[in-house]
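Batch queue: ligand-bound targets. Current item pairs a single chain with magnesium ion. No template structures supplied; prediction is de novo from sequence plus SMILES. Inputs echoed for audit trail.
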Amino acid sequence: MTVAIEMGHTTAGAPATLDLEELLATRLLVQGNSGSGKSHLLRRLLEQSAPWVQQTIIDPEGDFVALTDRFGHLLIDAEDHTERGLQVAGERARIHRVSTVLNLEGLDAENQMRRAAAFLGGLFEVDRDHWYPMLVVVDEAQLFAPAVAGEVSDEARKLSLGAMTNLMCRGRKRGLAGVIATQRLAKLAKNVAAEASNFLMGRTFLDIDMARAADLLGMERRQAEAFRDLERGQFMALGPALSRRPLGLRIGRTDTTPRNATPRLMPLPEAKLDARAIILAAPPPENNRPQRRSSPDLLGQLMAAKTAALEIRPEAVEQPLSAEKLAERRERARRHGGTRRGIPCYWRPLSGVRGPLPNRGPRFGSAGPG
Ligand SMILES: Nc1ncnc2c1ncn2[C@@H]1O[C@H](COP(=O)(O)OP(=O)(O)OP(=O)(O)O)[C@@H](O)[C@H]1O
Ligand SMILES: [Mg+2]
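Prediction returned. Tokens below.
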């Protein structure tokens, strides 16, 4: 069965379609700078394909929450669930074939990565009886599959990158079709980007991103320069589910809207304010603000470490010998032939070290203390 999803119109005015069956087997990468219209494009794809295929959206900004009202997707606020809970939720979503939006808004980067990885893990690990086709859309994919280590822990990065690699490299047999969007191709892990065979390239300005795009699409770098001239909502399509030759298209309108619309220019208020008095008024009392986690008690830790160090018994240091004892030892050592200039090696002070060395056994000299 061929299901043609209408994405919009080509620059020549013909309907621009996407073959859903083919997409399931060949995945999609969407790239374009901020504001180029990637999330709008994903929304169009999700809305048009919702009646045909189960979907899940990994949504770092809460942009796709409106799909829950209009198309019945289950909204999962990742903030309210543990990693284990999300993994099980992922498995159950596949077993019961429920479309979902995983809203990661409000979490820090580390937790966004961990929880997305847990949920994707659940989708991936489900028993083979439930390997039905499913679109897995990841917006801002560079957050979950970064090309280089960032400020998050190595463990979180490994989990998230592993889940994204599984989705894009090993998901097809399990029915998972990855659709990923990124602002910066150069920031997305290469192995994750390379597994998509379909591309929708939007407005791109940086040379480094254009070079990556040209490499991926097998274009001359000169040709990729055309991505600079694309308008918001315009994309260049290429791939088995889209077009065998690069094709310019404009994405059509959507039924739902993002929660956070782009702020529009508005005239500034005309009324004159006493800006100094308002902006620099005394701040409200501290306890009205969210509690900050107290900084670690560094002084206490240092004191504890010092006490522990004092409790370690120092090595026994030999007391200096009396003149008589010293003469007696020299004589004994001379008789055994183990001295240099009459002083046992063991006793020779090193330069800069005053008094006898701590007793470290025979390693320090062939002649023992006798
Ligand atoms: N084809 C289109 N038709 C009408 N409006 C569009 C179209 N594409 C994008 N827009 C509008 O342009 C704005 C920016 O689009 P969008 O949020 O999709 O950009 P983005 O590429 O996802 O940016 P970011 O990377 O910052 O998330 C939105 O208000 C969106 O509704
Ligand atoms: Mg977006």
